[in-house]
Amino acid sequence: MTRPTTLIVGASHAGVTAAEALRRNGYDGRIRLYSAEAAPLPYHRPPLSKAYMAGEKSAEQIALRGAKFYADNDIELLTGTRVDAVDAGARSLRAGGETVTWDTLVLATGARARPLPGCEGITSGLHRLRDLADADRLSALRNRGGRLVIAGGGFIGLEVAATMVRSGLEVIVIDPLQTLLRRALPADLSALLLARHRAEGVDIRLGRRISRVIAEDGALRRIELDDGCRIDTEDLLVGIGSTARLELAEQLGLATHAGGILVDRHGRSSCEGVYAIGDCAAQNNRFAGGLARIESVQAATDQARAVAAAICGKDDAPSASDALPWFWSDQYDLKLQMAGLPDAAATSVMRGTPGDGPCSLFQMQQDRMTASFSINRAGDHVHSRRLIAQGARFDISLLADPEIPLTKCQLTEAAT
Fold first, then answer.
1. Would you say the C-alpha torsion 90, 94, 100, 105 has a positive or negative sign?
2. What pLDDT digit, counting tens, does each position of 345-380 carry?
3. pLDDT tens digits, residue range 137-166?
4. CA of 356: how far to CAs of 44, 155, 188, 336, in Å?
5. An example Gene Ontology cellular component term from the record (predicted)?
6. C-alpha of 408 from chain center
7. What's 416's DSSP letter?
8. Which residues on adjacent β-strands are paired with residue 121?
9. SS3 311
10. 309, 317 contact by CB (below 8 A)
11. pTM of the full predicted structure?
12. Which domains does the chain have, with CATH numbers?
């Protein structure tokens, strides 16, 4: 009897987790894992803007799994191998000059950095941060010194700013919003991060846009802002969001929504035998209130485990559609951890004092917590993740007291 074949395109958190979960679920077919990157082993992405860029960790130290893992689990890892074409009718894939047929195809193609308009033709000094090679180019600036301008005050831009200013670079962050991280953080915590970055020497300019990028012979020389300010710089990091990689999905004729591949609660796409996970997938999430493309390690791994279970016929396994999104960001000695999605209509309860030691902010709809934001209070984060997911009710008068454990602030057991 011929062994079934599962091909996984993309070898980041989602792809590697899917391969591992297939074996854990008893899948005994062939597994091929394709990575377009030349890096010998798939790796953790979050350290790219922090420990790896700062030279504190090597590529080997941030590998998701060692080479032995792939050999022991009979997972064929093909690095430096770009998938050129897929054919839904033939259920085939072409990569590295070879055509392979599949029984199951898992797309974990991720996302690409959103380009900054007006940068066409620039061949030197324009940076993004999506992979190891990008991080290497940025890390090299630490030895050269000088000025780095960052377009976009999102988490990646701010993490890079923290790393680079500590390495001695002059760092300028340009963001069009008047409030830092306005869509991701409550105002009190946004103000705390803004003050900390400025205290470290980062020049953050809010409410400003880059209107023009000037290059000479393809090399970046300066930028102009919408207020007429000119900034000389040979290096610009663009961190203004991402778009899902949908080229293969388009070849397969897959349905898309919310900028990603439309999948059901088990990760199935509109084409039989084809699944999508990670940053390229758009899936219903009950905490997001509908279809969403949630870019986080947690979402990628939850989706991968659910898809592996579905491939193995275990549709009763937990679905990522029911998982509470959570995120984190490390900037200087601040560990920011978030559970749930920001709720502008919610009431806020602060535990501790921002800027004066660890603190947490809880967003509440009446006596139910909808989201939590913690700085250097890991216990609050861990407990709030579980309690929000369970629909727990709280005595709001107790939540503000940092001496009272979060679990002791409940009014009743979690709702059923």
1. negative
2. 899 999 999 988 999 999 999 999 999 999 999 999
3. 999 999 988 999 999 999 999 999 999 999
4. 32, 22, 13, 15
5. cytoplasm
6. 32
7. -
8. none
9. helix
10. yes
11. 0.95
12. 5-43+64-111+242-322 (3.50.50.60), 115-238 (3.50.50.60), 333-409 (3.30.390.30)
